[in-house]
């Protein structure tokens, strides 16, 4: 039976990525060697990294002021790298608190300086995006999280800012067009729309670096990764090959503009059903709903085992919500086909017919 | 033609690891899902991490005082994590300087405190292991590098120390039996004897943590990774699956005791030929020669293109030495079969017959 994979990440990737990765593990580019056993310094490995960086630049129309790097440690290490690279000694930063990952970023920045939480949606368990705030002009940078995987909210616009803007886009990067020039640091763990878990991508405005007065540990220093073309140390060749294949697939879908139309269609299909169906309620405020992660609950929790049985029988996997929200979470990343959302919607309709 | 892969890392891994990885990329444990698309929190993914940790403990007989963790960022991030976790505020550490990677570790420690280089082989381009030194008792820890991949040297014994001992074992971990109890932190990038590039393993004596007075960034904190069972954030499922398969293969070879015999046999075969053959000279001092990386040069550099042609025709790959040493480097990690070393030795003999 076909599996409809709504996992929040690591998550579904295109079938052709799996096929090509599987082949390359045995025989990379007909070299007779596995992609796992070649040096990252070999020309054909170097091409994998260079192509991945180039594809990000092309797909997101990254301006020349910015550079693209791939490192390791996920967004959690970016939480540390951002203040090391952006916060002056005895400096400060403004953070928008929109969920668990934003809180994680705030926690790390506080270890290096003063953090001002300029707005928070903690009062309603992060079910909305705060909008009534002003980014101060006397901080070193402003940090926000564009998509909150756990709570199903997404920033549809970004505030005016006179200071550098840093954004964690781990769960909605490459899902739609983006004006990169409005951001100074964008970072994103690969394991949603970019590839397998094991790498994290950053897009950095080179002009904002080198201003903190800190002696930055080398691995945490954006400038070093930029200078070394993301090969400061041994990079995860297998993981980046997965990223490259995934970016090539995205390009063939019409890039971010092309995939954005399908992502909108998927989100509309599911949210329409959540709103129409009397047995379910969406948890996020309507205007802040995420196109990537739709969170919803049963109005009658007593029916949980019945609904769970039905979606599992339909081949749906990984629909359970995060423990912080409960209920259900349908993650609809780039590689999830419309067909899978239709299967979920059909199950919700059948469930209504039976128990409504 | 069979490839004899002498790459210094990422390097050869067992064929059965490639086969099983390739299958799991398409269909992990007959679940119908790729190992790249499942959540790291799923029970069958969790089992991959738990089994990997357990196998390290079993293979190296890790005592209960120590814990095993897997993180990302390679040994280069460990260079940063070690002083953050081990060096007191305004503290100091003693480092042994035996090569390029030791220098990298020293550079990062200096950013956090006072570093005393208690011995160095820089005077002879790191072709030996210094032995005439005493580890001071008034430092926070002593750091050394057990195997110097670039220079072909290896520590055959470790000094007495009254302070905690930290060792970078990236390129000889799991190649032979080891008394873990004599070390307080051992770390090793996976991409030599452990698996594909993309993870780094650390074995940490829990009793030495929490004594620095530092507010450690979360990702850099050993205690957090220990507390979270190496799942503080999304870990690289694909890479760790490769580690698990490789550790299982090693267990089936008779563990570190079994592989150690073969590694000794391979090293003896090659070093005997280097010493016997009048056209070559080994670059490392004999008593400090590495079992993992044999470095040697041609006595007559004019014959380089002839020798290069011969070994390439024999199916040998990645034999060129690092630019810091020149000449040749034969890396003989666990998965390299004795047969491949024999092919190299046969080429060296044939080369001597033709040009000797």
Kindly describe this structure.
The structure is a homodimer of 356-residue chains. With 356 residues, chain A is of the alpha/beta class. Chain A has 2 domains: 15-252, Aspartate Aminotransferase, domain 2 (3-Layer(aba) Sandwich), CATH 3.40.640.10; 255-355, Alpha-Beta Complex (Aspartate Aminotransferase, domain 1), CATH 3.90.1150. Chain A has helices at residues 15-26, 43-59, 74-86, 100-110, 222-227, 237-252, 255-276, 304-313, 338-355, and strands at residues 4-5, 66-71, 92-97, 114-120, 142-145, 147-148, 153-154, 165-168, 185-189, 200-205, 280-282, 293-298, 316-317, 328-331. A 7-stranded mixed β-sheet of chain A has the order 2-10-9-8-5-3-4, sandwiched between helices. In chain A, α1 (15-26) runs antiparallel to α6 and α8 (304-313) packs across α9. The radius of gyration of chain A is 21 Å and the shape is globular. The model of chain A has no long low-confidence stretch (mean pLDDT 97). At the A-B interface, α1, α3, α4 and α6 of A face α1, α3, α4 and α6 of B. Chains A, B: It comes from Moheibacter stercoris.
How are the SSEs ordered, and which strands pair?
The structure is a homodimer of 356-residue chains.
Chain A: E1 4-5, H1 15-26, H2 43-59, E2 66-71, H3 74-86, E3 92-97, H4 100-110, E4 114-120, E5 142-145, E6 147-148, E7 153-154, E8 165-168, E9 185-189, E10 200-205, H5 222-227, H6 237-252, H7 255-276, E11 280-282, E12 293-298, H8 304-313, E13 316-317, E14 328-331, H9 338-355
Quick overview of this protein structure:
2 copies of one chain form a homodimer. With 356 residues, chain A is an alpha/beta fold.
